[in-house]
Specification:
The protein is 44% helix and 20% strand. The chain has 316 residues and is α/β, with parallel strands linked by helices.
Amino acid sequence: MSTTKTRKKIALIGAGNIGGELAALCARKELGDVVLFDIPSREGVAKGKALDLEQNSAILGYDAKISGTSNWADCAGSDVIIITAGIPRKPGQSRDDLVATNLPIIRDVADNAKKHCPDAFVIVISNPLDAMVYEFQRRTGFDSKKVVGMAGVLDSARFNLFLARAANASIKDVRAMVLGGHGDDMVPIFSACTINGVAATQLIAKDTLDGIVKRTRGGGGEIVQLMGTSAYYAPASSAVAMAESYLLDQKRILPCAALLNGEYGYSDLYMGVPVVLGAGGVEKIIVLDLNDEEKAMLAKSAKSVQGVVDVVKKAS
């Protein structure tokens, strides 16, 4: 009897708000069978969401097995791992405040991923993002091409939306790029921002653009203040876009937190940059020709990221 695995396997580490939405999207897109993992005290939540989503497949007509577990062995052999494990932000908290809480969690996830899923493509969502993905890759020793952080797709999506609203244009026509760390120093690149090929700077006044940049940088915090916890619909869609590009070898150019080795003048640092995502993982890091102002903003962002990474290193 053949034991050939025909469907891909996707492990979602953390069955909270983002984990549940990730599972729903992966199933509806039929990207593979899904394992929702959480700690033993939350195994019932993982199993319940999995059962609910499987029953939903009978209505919507998608073919995917979805299971919930607190046993890492059930994640063994996964093609993709998406990590949301950790404590989400609360009102008044910065992403950096989460280091002490989420560092032990990402280390435990890293150790188990290395043992059970050594060949997986890994997408980290847990905050503070740039430091958590750095620590995951450092601890596992996985090829950095197979370990990325989800931030830039989400930040760019927020930027896209605000630009579309300001220009009274279709969201489908907006193309924007946000680089740097996932935080208040993220860097919107106006030179790479168009609305159906027309420069956004030609359609939107500078003071309005400045306001959009400010709102984009605080986009996550705005949602935390409104509902008391982190966003989950757009973050989940962002991570699934990355997973889909890898699984289907789409070779999309997406801004991701990737390990830099001299690109943009930085090394041994995970930071948001445009990359080509395909079956090889990060197949290429694209270096944009930044102007002096953009370089200065990126330097400020890199300094912020390095500061949090240094905290993580000291806790080793």
